[in-house]
Amino acid sequence: MSDSSVDPLKESVEKFNQIANSAIHLYPFLSQAKIQLLNYSENATYLVDNSVTGKNYVLRVGRPGYHSKSEVESELAWLRSIDAHSSITVSLPIAGSNGDDVQVVDHEQNPYYCTLFTFLEGSAPDEDNENELIKQFEFLGEITAQLHEHSVNNRKNLTHLSRLTWDYETILGPNPKWGRWQDGLAITPERAKLFSKVSEKIKERLDRFGKGPDRYGLIHSDLRLANLLVERDQIKVIDFDDCGFGWYLYDLATSLSFIEHKSYVHALIDAWLTGYRKLRSLTEEEELEIPTFIMMRRLQLIAWIGSRDNETTRELGSGFTVDTDSLAEKYVQYAEI
């Protein structure tokens, strides 16, 4: 008989803790290090404190079955490329004792891919500090443009990377990477009808928009606030775990993750565009499609919340779906113009 009092989230975290403690022994200089869980979402991320040297690191333990080893290695190759050819500050991988950037810990017949990264100082932007957030979004727009310029300029070298594709099919199609929004929380028949109409409009508009090389390439694809570190007037980008091939404007949509319904979003978009245009131009057609990418991301997040069990999804719950109604209604009106 199973124990109904056992919290599956706690059980999962404890399993990742075991794997993380095994992983640090694959780095000889961390033999006396201590770990502390920073975040449990798609992966488990730990602060690693090396008490001998006083240096900190970040250890990421990947969720089994989410990425292959070659996909993780491709992510790390792009990180090194960004570090070598841009001014963007990123966290870099550190090889284990066998010389590999990706260490493998086998647990219950599953391989867990573990990566140790350099530690970056800073804290995530505060979504409740509107004025400061608007200023930070101008910096973020400029940084995102740098990422996209790097992607465009190195297209030939990057196309061979084994990474995810983030387009309509993989986000909202029949078998999306993060699950179906139809299986999200609080999906009533009325809400399903509204969201289906939104999804149809998104597909129609993106089919017309196309995947030209000036608007589609290798992107970060998860630039939400939790994946940004602010230190004084500098913004650093972390967690390239979901980087893949998608529309460049999708990166703007991801930076608005979980706050799409906030009243200050229009100001954030304007600030982002101001920063972005310092390095890259956007056509009127591209700007008109920004609401499409925001709605696509919002529906993707409904699917994510419904298919994941972590502190973030528990906190957001069905309220996130309910708050999407007004956004969906406005988008349908906008898309039909």
TrEMBL record:
SUPFAM superfamilies in alphabetical order: Protein kinase-like (PK-like)
BP GO terms, sorted: threonine biosynthetic process
Keywords of this entry: Kinase, Transferase
Annotated Aminoglycoside phosphotransferase domain residues: 41-280
Organism: Bacillus canaveralius
Protein name according to UniProt: Serine kinase
GO molecular function annotations of the record: homoserine kinase activity
Family: Belongs to the pseudomonas-type ThrB family.
